Q: What sequence folds into this?
């Protein structure tokens, strides 16, 4: 049953193409030609999807130089004053919120 449905699909698609060329039967070259067109279209879609995915998922290298854990460690070792720690922490938090779009929106 499945072969019959697939065969009917090929006939339904192929007959108008043959009618447009004015021939009764398709040749092996016709099949190869249309197969190459379909294969090229599929390849083009795959390449565009790959390019789009790479562009969307590109990592941004200009992130914060220090993480919050690094700042906490510097503060705990006494290399940062508490007010410096709070100022730098607020800057990092604001930058991350700006990048992710999760800033407070009232």
A:
């Amino acid at each position: 049953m499945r072969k019959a449905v697939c065969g009917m699909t090929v006939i339904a698609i192929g007959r108008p193409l043959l009618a447009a060329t004015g021939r009764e039967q398709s040749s092996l070259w016709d099949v190869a030609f249309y197969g190459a067109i379909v294969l090229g279209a599929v390849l083009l879609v795959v390449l565009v999807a790959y390019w789009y995915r790479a562009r969307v998922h590109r990592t941004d290298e200009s992130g914060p130089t220090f993480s919050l854990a690094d700042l906490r460690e510097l503060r705990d070792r006494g290399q940062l004053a508490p007010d410096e720690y709070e100022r730098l922490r607020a800057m990092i938090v604001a930058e991350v919120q700006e990048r992710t779009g999760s800033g407070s929106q009232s």
Summary: The helical segments are 2-21, 28-56, 68-76, 82-100. The chain has a mean pLDDT of 78. DSSP finds four helices and no strands in the chain. The radius of gyration is 31 Å.
